[in-house]
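Appendix B, Record 12. Input sequence as logged:
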Amino acid sequence: MRLAVTGREGQVAASLVEAARNRDDIEVVAVGRPALDLARPDTVFAALEAARPDILVSAAAYTAVDQAEDEKDLAFAVNATGAGKVAEAAARLGVPVIHLSTDYVFDGAKDGAYVEADPTAPLGVYGASKLAGEEAVAAANPRHVLLRTAWVYSPFGRNFVKTMLRLAADRDEISVVADQWGNPTSALDIAEAILHAAPKLGDDRNFAAFGVYHLAGEGDTNWSGFARHILDKSRAFGGPYAKVRDIATADYPTKARRPQNSRLSSAKFEAAFGWQAPGWREATEEVVSRLRGGAAEATAATLKG
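Logged structural output:
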């Protein structure tokens, strides 16, 4: 089976390419700019047709949450129009599409974990553009799986784990928001989940469970708790460490509003595909260990080579 994933530099794309190297049954090819540019819809079909996929993974996105408030047209061009074109290409090629979405489609006002049937209410441009992307994907290709995830980190790209380690190398104390809650989710685990689900989607053209799913790390915490765990593990591995000081969202103003509750229930995905993410603490430890050991840099060099 051959998976084509949009984007080359993204965390999920890099994790998929890496994970597939250890498998004989699935090949992953990453398709990105300049051949495929979601801001240029005319590039999408030709680039994906050339990849000859059995399944498309739509992972490329505009992810600058605050900048999106000033670049609404670009955010919607990539996350809505572009995502729809990827799903349309998959439909034209006769293959399913797995599209990555986000907790930002919710406003965070719910008590407890969000399930797929909960009403959406994005707080800002980024969340609104991703919700529009979900709608475009569903309209373009009935054989779709929309995977909403949250708080994604990995050995690749820019993410919260890397930011905490970088800041800890320069200061003794880091102020981190303590009143936003969610499920830290490793892109390494997202990749494993996709590779686990892909054969089922590819083999069964009448698969009855196409639709929306949540896929997040097991267990929840707040940002400051996440930061403490990252830095505790870093110190255990001989890396940088800093104390974490709890602050409120109001003490760290940002252009875009964030959901205070980003908890996602992954029970529907587990029931449909028989796969459960590891606990977020164990998954975080693996990523911190790799970053300290230099494995991520070696892998990144291989990906670009």
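The mean pLDDT is 93.
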